[in-house]
Design a protein that fits this description.
LysR_HTH_N (chains A, B), 11 strands, two-stranded antiparallel sheet, alpha/beta, 13 helices, 20% strand, DNA-binding (chains A, B), 46% helix, 290 residues, homodimer, DNA binding (chains A, B), DNA-binding transcription factor activity (chains A, B)
Chain lengths: 290, 290
């Protein structure tokens, strides 16, 4: 059996952002906290924390924290049946695509989190890579575009998010005066979320264009819309992200009216992480995407 | 002298998201592109690309790409004085804090980017760590909270962003019925941007509380506001991010009226990355933060 006192010290150091604060929280001296981290590292044969330039867990430390969290989730269920055990509030680590996080996510899970005192540790991942985090045991659940099931996990489809290629009317007049064309696609600056984001490539392939094109990289959903609104490029913007309102106000328009892309979303989670994940899954089942 | 044909192949593979597409863009066969990447790796004695599960540069590959970009920036200046050389559009890699990206950034730089055909590669970093990227040569400029100058770079102060601790009125009635207190801070769920984010800790220290507290982790500025609006916690929200409007509408309120935090912002950039950075710096000088 692992010594959970040591894991608790590790989690507290990360949570509090330092050894001294962790000591205060645990009612221990700073050196007692250091000693616990050291014991963990000796047992593991490798470091669990990187101290400089800023405090963060090593990959091994992250695995330990994730395991600690899963054990806490199981304890949470136990406490439901044995309420005299007292209360705790573990954080549930979830990988999520940025566009869901800035649109429907909080409304879907807010009520459950409030009612159960559930805390989330959200990790933003491109929709095509979050699943790897789940497979690696780095998160307890993952919301992503891949339907591929992984051993030991369940996969629940949630629907699809629709994306349209939007830009300012000025931008369209400058770069697409004659509508979409191979020449225009080759020269018009686009906005791409990140190096793993294939939405823009998929959209261009759908329009019959397979070459290279100039683009900004902007790994923030809201920042992405801001760049589009400033006339810096066109980008695939989710309909749920005020796109309809921005189009209705005349601030954005489609560079290729009628063209859109749908991205399916799937919820993957470990089967044995406890009932709270089942309840979260039920809450997500109520969502209507578009 | 480096063989820039090889660096160009590497940049194109990353831009196009694959060897086949890069071949199309370069007018080469897929195997000719592979051969160029391989030559680069042989010369360097280590891989520049990771192919599975998704294509991305290794840290060494990233350094090469950054160097390639800096050389392109210098070429851009050269082209201004020798216009017959033809045109190119390198991407400028910049580390930026998330809250700037979703508020004032695009309006400040949009006009310059449009006028010069300048493309950005934005890397979102916590305000306290972006500088490390600049020091490592991973970005050409960095917008962050640290005034600490680094050798070879200039540092320009841009002003301060103000943050207030906001939550829904319901949340405040539930968790802070008698206003802020040590007991309330110990139990009320907060929202923290990420493990490097010290804003919440600074705010609590300012209120005289130094212990641990429950919190969600949400590394997305807009997602952060969504969690607050869903009543999941209170969080430090920038005034520039519609905070005043949300407070005026009664959707959010301060848990500690009168308390706020100011985060200074500084623009750091390499001195010898070309004139475009000078012009970008002038554009940023026009910004009024609050």
């Amino acid at each position: 059996m692992l010594d959970y006192k040591l894991l608790h010290a590790l989690a507290t150091v990360i949570e509090c952002g330092g050894f001294e604060r962790a000591g205060d929280a645990l009612g221990l001296s700073q050196s007692a906290v250091s000693q616990r981290i050291k014991s963990l590292e000796v047992r593991l044969g490798q470091p669990v924390l990187i101290r400089h330039p800023e405090l963060h867990p090593t990959p091994a430390g992250q695995r330990l924290l994730n395991h600690y969290q899963q054990v806490q989730l199981l304890e949470r269920d136990l406490r439901t049946t044995l309420p005299t055990l007292g209360e705790s509030a573990p954080r549930l680590r979830i990988a999520i695509n940025a566009d869901s996080l800035v649109t429907w996510w909080a409304d879907a899970v807010g009520e459950l989190c409030r009612a159960e005192g559930l805390l989330l540790d959200l990790v933003v991942e491109d929709q095509d890579v979050g699943l790897k985090r789940l497979r690696d045991g780095d998160v307890a659940a993952c919301l992503c575009a891949s339907p591929q099931p992984i051993a030991g996990a369940r996969c629940v489809p949630l629907g699809e998010m629709a994306y349209q290629p939007l830009a300012t009317p000025d931008y369209i007049a400058r770069h697409f005066p004659h509508g979409p064309s191979i020449d225009a696609f080759r020269q018009a600056p686009a906005i791409v979320f990140g190096p793993h984001d294939q939405l823009q490539h998929r959209f261009l392939a759908q329009c019959g264009y397979h070459g290279s094109f100039p683009y900004h990289l902007c790994p923030s959903s809201e920042g992405f819309v801001r760049l589009a609104l400033a006339g810096m490029g066109y980008g695939m913007i989710p309909q749920m992200m005020q796109a309809d309102a921005l189009v209705a106000e005349g601030r954005l328009a489609s560079i290729a009216p009628g063209e859109s892309l749908s991205v399916p979303l799937y919820w993957h989670f470990w089967r044995h992480s406890g009932n709270v994940l089942e309840r979260l899954t039920r809450a997500l089942g109520q969502v209507t995407l578009k």
